Task: inverse folding
């Protein structure tokens, strides 16, 4: 990868793609935006699926996953299984029921279900923290791409990337451009798979379905270079694999911006089938991501380049490196850069708007300025959006891991807090406000403890790794919620009746 | 008061009504299939690696990929999609059935027709 020079062709492709998004948003002519900060139009179940997938596909999926495969081989499969398996949990345990609650945000749901303003505020704060952590992963991806595109160092690239993101959101908002999610997904999948097909064709593999064609590369690495890349548990334990996989699944079913998709869908059947389409669209990318990791290792081995397991920056850019090492034309590498930027921008802007909405509707009028008018809330949301961007930018200067690892930490927090609150809130009417408050606080402690006491308590950090703490953490939080709920007063008959009659459709007696 | 509410409560371990009992039964089946596949494939790969030589893992291929790689990376996401489709088909069928039953119940006394 050439650093230090401006990549003119890829830069033009990236700029062209964002211009296309804004223009298509303007052409759609549907200026839909709710007061909760989500926007977008839906056209059928496939459209809902594309919306779910385009919202989901972040820098972690587009760039980070291939980087994990490049560095850790089979262990990275935990990401693929975790990030797809979580949708099964979401569909069978939550999607229908969330729609029936009729609440528009995670704090709204928690506040209504548990009849507690404290629980609602706590859920809002946790949503904002999740947003910040998840955005750090995205900002890191944006910064690495900007660094390559403009030929500048990482820190200036973080600042330029943040400015570009804020400008994009402001310009889109000022022009009234609606997110065209189907177009965004089409761009993402095309920019990810087309270069992979070109690489597979160049290598003489089965290029029509490169997701299956790259197996020959694994064999060549093993036979000619002695790299046993696909060995399952060579460097990690079974426990570590399961801990990461289940953490990502619980987190998927607890991430506020994923859950928010179901509040917006017009009907329950549409919500359910939208998940299936969304999962299929997501799987298309995840079936392909390992190929970039293995092909990069093969090209490096063929070129006699040493494998540097400690270079996280290079690993996070491995999708582009694989294309470069494979000798693809510069426009194909530009396509990958454009897809990565699009994935990071769409996820980040959506997340930050969700975070701003949580602040302006759940925290600002309750804790900071009671009696604030609607206009005040709008100003608060805009101000908080800028503040969020600033905080995330500063945290991105010194990221604590690779893109996928930082994202996994956000999933762990969501899995330890929001997931148990929703699961028991829907399926156990006896869960009450005291239980959920204690549970969510315990979840926060479990998530952050490895950062602070992990070094002094090795057993703790082994059982609750920073990126994988929800495997044991989420069941533990649920046990705490159950015990505290049983020891304290039950929720009101009104909410219990609502859960039975309206959420689970039980017959009246 | 609390006791009355508790008796009317419905939850995962206490489903009430035909529809909810059916839904919970289905969820249990789907989650069993989900869990068995995730855990089963990893245990298969783990014991294969622990019990036999690494060469066997390299030689067992499917669709040109090492077997553990294909099962986890390619088949599991496909299996999740299949589980989701099965769930949705059952839910659609069930809700249509319930709707028809309630319509029949409402319309019959008025018109006598079985629409």
Result:
């Amino acid at each position: 990868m050439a650093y230090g020079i401006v990549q003119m062709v890829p830069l033009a492709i990236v700029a062209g793609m964002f211009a296309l998004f804004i223009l298509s948003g303007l052409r759609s002519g549907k200026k839909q935006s709710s007061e909760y900060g989500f926007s977008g139009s839906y056209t059928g179940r496939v459209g809902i699926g594309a919306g779910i997938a385009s919202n989901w596909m972040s820098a972690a999926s587009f760039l980070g996953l291939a980087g994990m495969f490049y560095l850790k081989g089979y262990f990275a499969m935990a990401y693929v299984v975790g990030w797809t398996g979580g949708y099964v949990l979401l569909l069978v345990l939550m999607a229908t029921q969330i729609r029936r609650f009729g609440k528009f945000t995670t704090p709204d749901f928690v506040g209504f279900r548990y009849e507690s303003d404290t629980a609602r505020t706590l859920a809002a704060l946790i949503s904002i923290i999740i947003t910040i952590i998840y955005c750090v992963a995205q900002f890191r991806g944006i910064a690495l791409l900007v660094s390559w595109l403009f030929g500048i160092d990482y820190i200036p690239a973080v600042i330029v990337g943040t400015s570009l993101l804020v400008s994009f959101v402001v310009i889109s908002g000022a022009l009234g451009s609606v997110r065209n999610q189907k177009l965004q997904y089409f761009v993402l999948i095309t920019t990810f798979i087309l270069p992979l097909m070109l690489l597979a064709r160049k290598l003489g593999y089965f290029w029509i379905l490169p997701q299956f064609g790259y197996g020959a590369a694994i064999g060549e690495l093993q036979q000619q270079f002695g790299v046993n890349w696909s060995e399952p548990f060579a460097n990690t334990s079974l426990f570590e694999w399961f801990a990461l996989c289940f953490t990502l699944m619980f987190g998927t079913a607890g991430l506020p911006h994923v859950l928010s998709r179901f509040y917006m869908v017009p009907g329950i059947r549409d919500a359910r089938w939208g998940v299936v389409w969304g999962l299929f669209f997501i799987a298309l990318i995840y079936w392909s991501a390992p190929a970039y990791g293995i092909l990069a290792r093969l090209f490096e081995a063929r070129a006699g380049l040493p494998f540097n397991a400690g270079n996280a920056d290079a690993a996070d850019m491995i999708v582009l490196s694989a294309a470069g090492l494979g000798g693809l034309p510069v426009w194909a590498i530009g396509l990958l850069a454009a897809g990565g930027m699009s994935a990071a921008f769409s996820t980040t802007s959506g997340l930050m708007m969700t975070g701003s909405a949580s602040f302006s509707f759940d925290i600002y009028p309750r804790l900071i300025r009671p009696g604030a008018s609607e206009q005040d809330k709008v100003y608060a949301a805009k101000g908080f959006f800028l503040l969020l961007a600033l905080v995330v930018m500063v945290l991105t200067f010194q990221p604590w891991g690779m893109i996928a690892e930082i994202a996994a930490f956000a999933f762990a927090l969501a899995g330890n807090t929001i997931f148990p609150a929703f699961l028991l809130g829907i399926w156990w009417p006896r869960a009450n406000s005291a239980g959920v408050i204690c549970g969510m606080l315990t979840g926060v402690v479990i998530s952050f403890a490895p950062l602070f006491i992990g070094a002094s308590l090795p057993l703790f950090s082994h059982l609750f790794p920073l990126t994988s703490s929800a495997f044991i953490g989420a069941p533990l939080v649920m046990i705490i919620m159950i015990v505290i709920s049983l020891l304290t007063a039950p929720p009101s008959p009104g909410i219990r009746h609502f859960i039975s009659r309206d959420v689970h459709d039980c017959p009246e007696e | 008061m609390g006791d009355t509410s508790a008796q009317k409560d419905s939850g995962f371990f206490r489903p009430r009504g035909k529809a909810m009992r059916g839904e919970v039964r289905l969820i249990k089946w789907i989650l069993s299939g989900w869990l068995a596949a995730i855990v089963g494939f990893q245990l298969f790969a783990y014991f294969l690696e622990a019990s036999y030589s690494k060469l066997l893992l390299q030689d067992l291929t499917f669709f040109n990929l090492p077997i553990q790689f294909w099962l986890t990376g390619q088949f599991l996401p496909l299996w999740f999609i299949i589980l989701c489709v099965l769930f949705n088909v059952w839910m659609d069928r069930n809700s249509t059935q319930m709707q028809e039953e309630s319509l029949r119940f409402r319309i019959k006394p008025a018109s006598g027709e079985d629409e």
